[in-house]
Amino acid sequence: MSKPLSALTRIAAGLGLAAALAATPAAATELTFFYPVAVGGPVTKIIDDMAAAFEKDNPGIRVKPVYSGSYQDTITKVVTAVKGGDAPHVSVLLSTDMYTLIDEDAVVPFDDLVKTAEERAWMTSFYPGFMQNSQTGGKTWGIPFQRSTVVMYWNKELFTQAGLDPERPPQNWNELIEYGKKLTKRDAAGNVTTWGVQVPSSGFPYWLFQTFTTQNGIELMNAAGNETYFDKPEVVEALQYWVDLSRKHGIHPPGVVEWGTTPKDFFERKAAIIYTTTGNLTNIRANAGFDFGVAMLPAGKRLGSPTGGGNFHVFKRSTPEEREAALKFVRWMTTPQRAAEWSIATGYVAVSPAAWETDTMKKYVADFPAPTVARDQLEYAVAELSTHENQRVTKALNDGLQAALNGTKTPEQAMRDAQREAERILRAYR
């Protein structure tokens, strides 16, 4: 039979119980994380693994990734959720959705979340080129994560067969036409079996078009996101050049070219040169059964590409604890080491100079230097098209581009109509 506890023993036991209760972790802070799956590859597994690793490092926080379709699907779902009072805590969305998220009063600027000097230094650690679509009105609304530029991929075997130097891609617009003519192949019946050049015009037509306008020395919008310049002569000239690749020179597929099938056409040797995102680099490296090259886009009046891709955003309808957890998650995901690992796994550009200084990245590019192309092209990059009512404005431009590529409108008429519609949409913001 046990002896009764002395008063001292009872007090000690009570203190032990209190200590045990104090050591019991509080209920975990749960974060809903909307993530767009828009580029090929096992991206969802990578995100799941990163979320699990974050939870291991941060036992008091749980992250629930929600795979929300394309970028367009995701912004639609996010805006609907915001209006219904059920917004996620954090999401990766196109950097160009910044004005839409601000206009919907959906997100909180990171300036309101950071508290320490270390956190403020982190906010300034990213490439300036990526911050052009992340900041407005003196505040930082997005943190770069899966960012990109458009680059050129070429099939070195097809270059050799065409009598071209496989190590020297076209350097300018004239050479792109010259090379394209040598690379385009036709069968005995005159049907094209390999196109010299392929630039996709579905999915993100405006983004690929911005490569040509940037190289022709003009930007499509102002920094305030309330003016567009679609009908400027330099813009019309850029569109005429794209149209002429097919209609005049016969080196580019006619009509609208699918975004999603362009890498596959490259793998199957149906296209010798393609323009696509750096986010396809790992996919192309894994699936191209031939030696390929990656280079900056050919210059017009200048070199250039728009930046692209997604930023982290933190949403307003959340508790202080949830915002603090969301900031911790975004910081964790964008550390130099993880930015390097993410870049290697996906092909996106590592978003900070410090990521390129990690041993992991140095070793990777020593064996495979292609990722440095997009990084170096940032020197010539401009902000991706982003305005208030961005979905509607880009649709007006996309419709015009596809009308010109399909031949139902001249480039001049297509851009004039797109500008008229954009002005109507943006009038309220001026």
Automatic annotation (TrEMBL):
Predominant localisation class: periplasm
Signal peptide positions on this chain: 1-28
CDD domains, sorted: PBP2_UgpB
Record's keyword annotation contains Signal: yes
InterPro entries: Bact_solute-bd_prot1, SBP
CC terms in the record's Gene Ontology section: periplasmic space
Pfam family, any one: SBP_bac_8
SUPFAM superfamilies: Periplasmic binding protein-like II
PANTHER family named among the record's database cross-references: ABC TRANSPORTER SUBSTRATE-BINDING PROTEIN, ARABINOSE-BINDING PROTEIN-RELATED
Protein name (record): ABC transporter substrate-binding protein
Species for this entry: Pseudothauera nasutitermitis
